[in-house]
Write a sequence for this structure.
């Protein structure tokens, strides 16, 4: 995938002389706190390097004050970076003259904020068409684009309503429609959903992902909510005190946290809501329905599992035979599988783990199937539960290591 936005060694320091002593201290490795105490300057972003791919939802996550808004605002230079460069495609944004910068903001980016910033005295249509008016597009063109954008966010029919007549969630949709109406390549979303009720917020996340599947924008999405980050992000960047701790896929972040800060963070996540079956799927020991008991046992041994999946001639799962029942059958002199096959549920690769917990009751492996219903793998309940406990134990280990280090 090609890089759409390149953030290169970007620093943002707030204060009277940002590129003076404060920058020197930052380069020398001093912390945000030390720099503030000794120079009175605040480090917003300390040295960011990020490549955002075309078409991804890149999420920046961190607690309040970690530098998320500062970073996103550097991308369209609402904040002027103190050092470093930013590219969008081949354009060096950090080198644009004021007029070019204005055109870049207008044509290439759309911004959505936490607070809807709608014009109260204009109806929904005019609110959404605002950016197009600035672009000099005629009324008919504006209205058509506004209506298209409103239908994308599920608000067709509300064109003539006023913001105050809409719920918070609907107002935020109007904000999103406004950003989409000019058809920008890049969407900059700063805590766009943070003011919404949890339920509405989830709906908006789903809608954003659905819109993204359709439009393939490049989205820089800021949130302080890790669950949201892991849910919507193609990749997630974790920030603290202006510095980037880790950039990775949601699974990387959850399963391979690179710093103790990240590990601590992910402890609180309900991983089952984030991880999909593919992360815990294993190769299945598969046998044909006319196989013999001995075949089952050798397939089971080969993969070191406790049960084999039986498939029909098209490769579709019929059920499982456990090692135990196969061994019993064998010692009883039975060769055929008939009577040993127990049916098990089927799931697909993209099912999230939270949805399959209720299938764990029997303890039997669950069949993973592809779009054609053919067996592609197996999920073992115990392994899944172990995997879910893993991140917690990583951060416990780090915690232990830290206290031991402190005692030395
Ligand atoms: N205009 C400004 N002048 C001085 N300091 C600023 C300015 N804007 C941000 N900062 C400082 O930069 C740091 C990062 O702030 P920023 O707003 O980027 O955080 P954030 O991660 O977006 O937090 P939040 O989740 O609260 O929105 C903070 O220490 C903040 O005090
Ligand atoms: Mg912010």
């Amino acid at each position: 995938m090609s890089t759409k936005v390149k953030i290169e060694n970007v620093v943002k320091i707030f204060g009277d002389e940002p590129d003076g002593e404060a920058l020197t201290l930052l380069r020398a490795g001093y912390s945000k706190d030390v720099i503030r105490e000794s120079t009175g300057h605040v480090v917003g972003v300390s040295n960011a390097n990020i490549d955002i791919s075309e078409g991804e939802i890149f999420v920046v996550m961190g607690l309040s004050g970690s530098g998320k808004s500062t970073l996103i605002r550097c991308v369209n230079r609402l904040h002027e970076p103190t050092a470093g460069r930013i590219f969008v495609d081949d354009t060096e944004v950090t080198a644009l003259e004021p007029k070019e910068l204005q055109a870049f903001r207008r044509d290439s980016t759309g911004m959505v904020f936490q607070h809807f910033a709608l014009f109260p005295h204009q109806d929904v249509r005019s609110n959404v068409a605002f950016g197009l008016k600035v672009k000099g597009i005629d009324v008919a063109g504006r209205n058509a684009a506004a209506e298209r954008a409103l239908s994308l966010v599920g608000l067709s029919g509300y064109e003539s309503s006023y913001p105050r007549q809409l719920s918070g969630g609907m107002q935020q949709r109007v904000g999103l429609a406004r950003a989409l109406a000019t058809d920008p390549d890049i969407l900059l979303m700063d805590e766009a959903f943070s003011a919404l009720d949890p339920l509405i917020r989830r709906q908006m996340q789903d809608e954003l992902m659905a819109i993204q599947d359709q439009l393939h924008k490049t989205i820089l999405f800021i949130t302080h909510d890790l669950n949201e980050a892991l849910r919507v992000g193609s990749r997630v960047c974790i920030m603290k005190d202006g510095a980037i701790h880790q950039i990775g896929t949601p699974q990387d972040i959850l399963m391979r946290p690179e710093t103790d800060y990240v590990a601590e963070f992910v402890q609180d996540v309900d991983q089952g809501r984030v991880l999909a079956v593919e992360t815990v799927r294993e190769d299945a020991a598969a046998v044909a329905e006319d196989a013999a008991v001995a075949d089952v046992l050798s397939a089971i041994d080969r993969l070191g599992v406790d049960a084999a999946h039986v498939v029909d001639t098209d490769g579709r799962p019929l059920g499982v035979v456990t090692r135990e029942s196969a061994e019993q059958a064998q010692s009883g002199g039975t060769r055929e599988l008939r009577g040993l096959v127990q049916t098990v549920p089927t799931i697909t690769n993209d099912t999230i783990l939270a949805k399959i917990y209720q299938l764990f009751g029997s303890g039997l492996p669950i069949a993973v199937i592809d779009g054609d219903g053919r067996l592609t793998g197996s999920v073992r309940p115990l392994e899944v539960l172990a995997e879910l406990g893993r991140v917690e134990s990583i951060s416990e280990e780090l915690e232990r290591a830290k206290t031991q280090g402190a005692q030395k």
The domain at 278-384 is CATH 3.10.580.10 (CBS-domain). The chain has 14 helices and 16 strands. The mean pLDDT is 89.
